[in-house]
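So, read this over?
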Amino acid sequence: MQFACQTVDWGRRSPGKSFELIAKSVMRLLFFFPCTVRLARALAVLDCPELQTQNAGVFLKHLRKAYASNLSTAERARIVAHHYSVVRERLGLNFLSNSIDRGVCVWSANDDPMGPRIIARTANQYDFESELNLQFILGSELLYIMSAVVAPGTLWQSDEPSVMVITRVQGIRLKTPQMKAATAICGDCAPRLLLFAAMEGLAISLGVSQIIGIGVRQQIATAFGSVKSPSFNENYDLFWRSLNGHFRLDGNYNLTAPSLHTSLDSVPSKHRTRSLHRRIYRDLVMRSVIKEFRK
């Protein structure tokens, strides 16, 4: 009951709606009590009090649609437990605690503290798309976000013990001028390309070699109705294809860490130098993130 109350955003909903959500959470909690208990035990051994004090809703996030539209409640519970166990083991308690509290800077374009940079943050309890967010920031403004979970490979028909599932690729509306400025500073690489490079570095640091990009059909937003945004398909299916992602039967895309670049021979000659410079910059971002976690 305590966790159910903590997961309700009282400031955004009426008391009647809040109590209705609490009642639904309690009913689902009772129905899925066994997998919830297993999840609570798995999170308890992490020795990370910030999860309970600042992000208590993670214990119940599996009771609602989350991460991908085709996952069951038991599968979501396994993903939550697996994600935090792997992050705690591979990146350490300090990273986990700081990513919950204030965020961790994993890359910056230059020495300017207000310049382009990427911040890793643990998703809050109201974010049902992910458990870890990479945020691209310029100055004090958030421009782009890429989100992921580290999941058991068996849930995604993989022989790997863990896979990184990128669940969200989203730009912030009305930030086009800032994105162009950031792209110019960052080797002509758009923010989402740099976020993917950082995600590759994060995956390698976690010991993960397979990345799965969520396709339009499985993106969690589609679980609540069709999405009419013209950029929705561009941010998912088209983006994964541009990164040489291979389409899966479940509607998602297989990628690797590090990713496979398209042969320069297939790039028009007048664009090859520009493409090469972009690749070099992306690789530098990926290596910088790996180096950050090896300190």
About this structure: The mean pLDDT is 86. The CA atoms of residues 8 and 21 lie 7 Å apart. Strands lie at 104-108, 117-122, 132-138, 141-152, 162-171, 210-213, 246-247, 253-256. The longest strand covers residues 141-152.
